[in-house]
Prior knowledge:
The chain contains six helices and three strands, in the order βααβααβαα. By secondary structure, it is mostly helical. It has a three-stranded parallel sheet with strand order 1-2-3, covered by helices on one side. 49% of the residues lie in helices and 9% in strands. The N and C termini lie far apart (40 Å). The chain has helices at residues 9-16, 23-32, 42-53, 55-66, 77-89, 99-104, and strands at 4-6, 34-38, 71-73. It has a domain at 4-74. Residues 108-124 have low confidence and may be disordered.
Amino acid sequence: MDRRVIADTSGIIAFLDKDDEYHLSAANVIKNYSFYIPVTVLPEVDYLATKYLGERVSRAFLQDLSDGYFKYISIDVQDIIKATAIMEKYKDLPGTSNFCNDRRGINSPPHSPSPLKRTSAMRP
């Protein structure tokens, strides 16, 4: 079974920062899942990685992405059109913007605690 996960900024930073308390969990996810990175998180990852981990770490991550170690999810106009239609249809429900996942066959994971979803602040 092909196991897929969509990365968020905090999970990528945890993976890049060997001192992060969730580094091993993030590395385990990357090792065992097809890891998809949306275009929308790249600016934030680049900024945080450069600021807190150094330009070399940020550049290495972007090089790995461009070399195909991770899968890249772009967003095009058709995604935006579909998103607005879904948002209109389900306007009374929160969280209806997983429009890119459907087109790529990526299912949302079951709701369970994830070490990659955290709100702790970055340390300098």
